[in-house]
Amino acid sequence: MKNIFLLLVLFLFLSCAKHEPSESQSPKSISEDALKDKILQSYPNISIGDIQKIDDNLFEILINKQIYYATSDGKFLIVGNIIDLDTKESITENTKMKQRVKIVNSINDSNMIIYKPNETKYILTIFTDSSCPYCQKLHNEIDDLVKNDIEVRYILFSRNGAEVEAYKQLVSAWCAEDRLEAIESIFLGDLLDENLTCDNPINENYEFASTLSVEGTPTIFLQDGRIIPGYQNHQDIMAFIYK
Q1: Which CATH superfamily is domain 107-242 in?
Q2: Looking at the chain, which terminus has fewer C-beta neighbours within 10 angstroms, N or C?
Q3: 168 burial via Cβ count (<10 Å: 0-12, 13-18, 19+)
């Protein structure tokens, strides 16, 4: 991957005299539990999630829901993208993709508005906001995506929070007797009755967006955890899916 840099953050005090191991010596690998204890000794207020050893040199660690790495001897903590020079793959991005898939798959279908083809060959999950012009453009591509056997799952997301007109319109659309018709209306710029309320997932969707680091709309999640940020037409989306 292009333009990816490694940022090494060393959490350790260096002594005046540094002992260099001889060629016959090699750093001893510590256990996952020992590594966790060592990190918490320096940073007791952080939250440590999964720790796994990815090879003889590195551990991958989830700290405060962010991905870090540590050398196998527990000496250095590293933040940034780790690239496998043999495969040219980002180990970090592969982990992020798995995390996204897990989170997206945890969202209940009842939180979504689903456009389902006769035969589903692929699924897109899209965080969308009817007040976003690029979401409106993407909405015009839905029919073509569905015609190509791509199921589109909308997650209604008020990107500017709950104190804006768009939030009220999303709630009204969700609570309408015919949600699909209501969604069409608000994407066309029509205003729905703001007094129409019910139990709705809009606030919960905001939390999912935060967990997935959704910063703008539309944000399209592919089944394998890849992301298409922003508007793309249906041809480009399909090319991205199947490349």
Answers
A1: Glutaredoxin (3.40.30.10)
A2: C
A3: buried
